[in-house]
């Protein structure tokens, strides 16, 4: 297999390190009423619980059916027109859009790989037509968060040029320098160990536009293990969006108005099952994000042709037109809780060099061009900013097209 890695200029390195930090799924900031070492203040506690109660009423919509998941989640079947998206003033009173025009040139899913389903659906019970499944948010979800006011959102912190000290570590492949109208990839799913509640491990794709300042636009989808957000260590299907560099817009999953879900069998934020095992079965998911040429909305496809829903074009500024960068890969948070590097794993927890069945991968990487056609990547670059902890190796062949292996164990003899 020929390597597709390219020599990276210093300008690109600075640009991507800067981008890494802007993208980072930062641990949310703490607020005073969450501090465990503070005195109990009944009035403050009452205000906090009232705030949480009001937010829960807004997030959790009336359901016509509830499904109990084996992992403890409650999946509410909510009428499509009552989902959180339609709280948005520009969507009030509307119905979900008609089906989009799919990109041309899709690569069929190989029979060698089994696609995942979600844990909640293993009972064979689904939400009725005309409804969508929504993972119920609980009071405990809020109380676990280090900032209840930013619950479900990323925190943007002051920009720092030295990415080695911001706590976020990455192993990614990316393309830039053109106009992109979508991206597609298949990635295998693992359950990496996360060392503490305020760290996470994720694998995702990003569709990006803007100046990488306050006007940054992103659409993101993948799987993540986040004990803070979900209260457990299951890998979960997630989405995110922002139109202002994670400041006031956007959120995870359906925790705010924005993403319009159209599917009654996929629950965003729910656990994925089965998962890959070391030297055993490999289970992957396929993700496709693309801009519908007719209406301009950005659609999400999960698996082999399953439409999940769309981000309306009016949510964005730069992404109303096209993306200027596409990125694929893994990210972890290292908060150095014990004054040493975290043992939080990325991907399978094994380095890229171990290859198939042992390392995590992205395969069949493609982008969508101006003609709504899926095309292979040109000039894929790969980068790991802490290669002794987590690394990446790219390649290309006839079956997987553009691909890479990535990941690692975190703390080890070369990553103290």
Automatic annotation (TrEMBL):
Organism superkingdom: Eukaryota
Pfam families on file: Neprosin, Neprosin_AP
Ranges for domain Neprosin PEP catalytic: 198-409
Keyword field contains Signal: yes
Span of the signal peptide: 1-30
Keyword Signal: yes
Keywords assigned by UniProt, alphabetized: Signal
Domain called Neprosin activation peptide: residue spans: 66-174
Record's protein name: Carboxyl-terminal peptidase
Organism: Fraxinus pennsylvanica
């Amino acid at each position: 297999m020929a390597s597709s890695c390219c020599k990276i200029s210093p300008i690109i390195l600075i640009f991507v390190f800067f981008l890494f930090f802007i993208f980072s799924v930062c641990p949310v900031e703490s607020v005073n009423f969450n501090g465990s070492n503070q005195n109990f203040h009944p009035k403050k506690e009452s205000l906090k619980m009232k705030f949480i109660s009001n937010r829960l009423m807004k997030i959790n919509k009336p359901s016509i059916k509830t499904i109990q998941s084996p992992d403890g989640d409650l999946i509410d079947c909510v009428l499509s027109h009552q989902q959180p998206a339609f709280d948005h003033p520009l969507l009030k009173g509307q119905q979900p859009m008609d089906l989009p025009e799919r990109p041309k040139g899709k690569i069929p899913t190989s029979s060698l790989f089994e696609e995942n389903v979600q844990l909640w659906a293993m009972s064979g019970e689904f939400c009725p037509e005309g409804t969508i499944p929504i993972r119920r948010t609980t009071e405990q979800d809020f109380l676990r968060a280090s900032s209840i006011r930013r619950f479900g959102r990323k925190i943007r912190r002051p920009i720092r040029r030295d990415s080695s000290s911001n706590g976020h570590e990455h192993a990614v492949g990316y393309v830039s320098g053109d106009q992109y109208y979508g991206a597609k990839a298949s990635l295998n799913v693992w359950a990496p160990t996360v060392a503490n509640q305020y760290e996470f491990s994720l694998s995702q794709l990003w569709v990006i536009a803007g100046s990488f300042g306050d006007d940054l636009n992103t659409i993101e989808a993948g799987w993540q293990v986040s004990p803070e957000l979900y209260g457990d260590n299951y890998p979960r299907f997630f989405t995110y969006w922002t139109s202002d560099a994670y400041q006031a817009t956007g959120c995870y999953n359906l925790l705010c108005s924005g993403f319009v879900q159209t599917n009654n069998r996929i629950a965003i934020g729910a656990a994925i099952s089965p998962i890959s095992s070391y030297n055993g079965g490999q289970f992957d998911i396929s993700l496709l994000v693309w801009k519908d040429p007719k209406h301009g909305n950005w659609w999400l496809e999960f698996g082999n042709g399953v439409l999940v829903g769309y981000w309306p074009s009016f949510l964005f500024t730069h992404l109303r037109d096209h993306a200027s960068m596409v990125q694929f890969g893994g990210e972890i948070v290292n908060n150095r809780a014990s004054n040493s590097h975290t043992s939080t794993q990325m991907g399978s927890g094994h380095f890229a060099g171990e290859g198939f069945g042992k390392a995590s991968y992205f395969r069949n990487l493609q982008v969508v061009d101006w003609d709504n056609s899926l095309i292979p990547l040109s000039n894929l670059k790969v980068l790991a900013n802490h290669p002794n902890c987590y690394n990446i190796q790219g390649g290309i062949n006839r079956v997987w097209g553009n691909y890479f292996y990535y990941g690692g164990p975190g703390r080890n003899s070369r990553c103290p």
